Amino acid sequence: MLVRDPHARAQVIANANQILTDIAAALSTDLPQSDEAFRFLSWDIGLTRAAAGVHPKESLLAASVFFRAAFSVLSKRLQGDSETDRLLRHVVNTLEQSVSIRIREAATSYAGFLLSKVHEAHVAERGRIARELHDRIGQSLSVAHRQAELSVMYRTTDPAKAIAKMERTQEAIREAMWRLRQLTSDLHPLEPIQSLEKALLAHLETIGAEDLRAELVVNGDEVWATPAISEECLLILSEGIRNALSHGKPSAISIRVDIAPHELRASVADDGRGFDVNRPSDRHSLGLASIQERAALLGGMVTISSEVGRGTRIDLAVPLPGSVDEPG
Fold first, then answer.
1. All residues at 6 or more sequence positions from 206 whose CB lies less than 8 Å from its CB, including other chains
2. Antiparallel, parallel or unpaired: β 252-259 and 301-306
3. Where in or outside the cell is it found (predicted)?
4. Range among 98-107, 233-242, 252-261, 271-280 with highest mean pLDDT value
5. 113: which residues sit within 8 A by CB, 6+ positions away?
6. What is the pLDDT of residues 244-282, one digit of tens each?
7. Fold for domain 195-328?
8. Where in the chain are all domains bearing CATH 3.30.565.10?
């Protein structure tokens, strides 16, 4: 396995040369020794093989093969009198020491790489939990807050509407509690959404902004997008809508989704306040950062364009499984 890869083969040859150099040096000084330069190569080998998913047993096998091959050649060259036997024992000891210290260094490097990957996984998991809290629970609480505000506003002028808004507040709070239970169990939806279009319509209905003109257009066959991709796209678009209502104060918002066999494209555009995309404090708000992170996890891309006083537009492009050409 190692010799088939050009880089790994070069590492094996360099390692063998260093070991044979150790043996030559030991024969001239009568002391086992290794140049400290071996550490750099050993660490490089450990990291490279860990990153490539090569199991440590491959390194042990390579060391065993090299030891047997080298010992076979050296023993034939050094057969003879008692002095030769002494030298042979010395060579064997040096060979074993030179090989084993390299294996230890490479193993340490390998373990360090794996620990680093575990740490990265923990950081990624914390980021995912933050996104789930913000996108799912935060979204429901934001809707509840908005409905409660509307209920207070209509309390004296339209009591019936105020009651309806309070009922929607309760629904949003129940949804937040349900999503919190989801998060504490497995952080994934219990059931995949059946229709992205219906889910977006339901989300727009829960917003309940009386003075907002909302338009939704969905083109293409939703079966081309897996339930997992549809779920993530729903969260991205919902967050885009939430950001528009929370920060842009628009009078109109337009959501468009175009689904093709190879790609899903979507956009959220509003006529609100807009913002300066060159200001990091604006562009990297928690909501927009979450949108970009979720798109990246899907292998997709988000483009955010905005201008103060002229609204904001979020464009999403996500590759679908059909975008990979199958042979034959």
1. 143, 168, 171, 172
2. unpaired
3. Cell membrane
4. 252-261
5. 46, 47, 50, 51
6. 887 778 899 999 999 999 999 999 999 988 888 777 655
7. Heat Shock Protein 90 (3.30.565)
8. 195-328
